[in-house]
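Lab meeting notes turned into a lecture example. A postdoc, R.K., suggested we walk through two folding results consecutively so the class can see how the record format repeats. The first protein's sequence and structure tokens come next.
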Amino acid sequence: MKLKSALIATAVLLAPLGAAAQGQNCGNRDLVVERLTTKYGESRQSIGMAPKGRVVEVFASHETGTWTITITMPNGVTCLVASGQSFEALDEPVAPAGIRG
């Protein structure tokens, strides 16, 4: 859960960069998702809302370990924010306030 939160926070911080690079790393959401699915075998692992109506999604392949973070603008344009390897799905419980693990 902490990793997922960190990834989403990073995507939100980098979101303005995606808009500036629309010609190179952005496209129609359906085409971007199709490419992630067919070329990399990735499927959506998590989703969250960011400021200004943006949608942040994490796609990953459990077979290959590749992952991609995208951000979709309200106009339907999806930008690639980050990608990498060694994806691991975590579902860590949140420790009660004042207790550290």
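The second example is placed directly after the first for contrast:
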Amino acid sequence: MRVLGLAIGFVTVIAAHAAAADARFERSLLMLAPSERLEQLCDYTAMTHIRADERHFRPDRAVANAMKEVIHKNHTIVARGGAFRSRGKWYEMSYTCTAEPQHLKVESFNYKIGGEIPQSKWASYGLWQ
């Protein structure tokens, strides 16, 4: 019973930490122009989805326009040349992300992960260690 109590306490602390992080992220979004807000929101969403769906990746950075400029359509971004960093390596990604009009919440999101980007190409894509 004590182990169950500790487990529940641990999950509660993790959930509270995640909620606080989300609140801080939302406050930081409000400081950006709406077009910048949309891209940051979608990059953040890409990292959270990849982290949750692909347990072997631990993304800490995402760049929607690493290899190609993104396409903006109203409240949607189509990123066909993006990248994310996980454990010191960069990987290709693409996504389509649609947010509500204030660009504070994502309405729909889908993504695809590509291959690892060779370190020799990082500088040409504006990626860093």
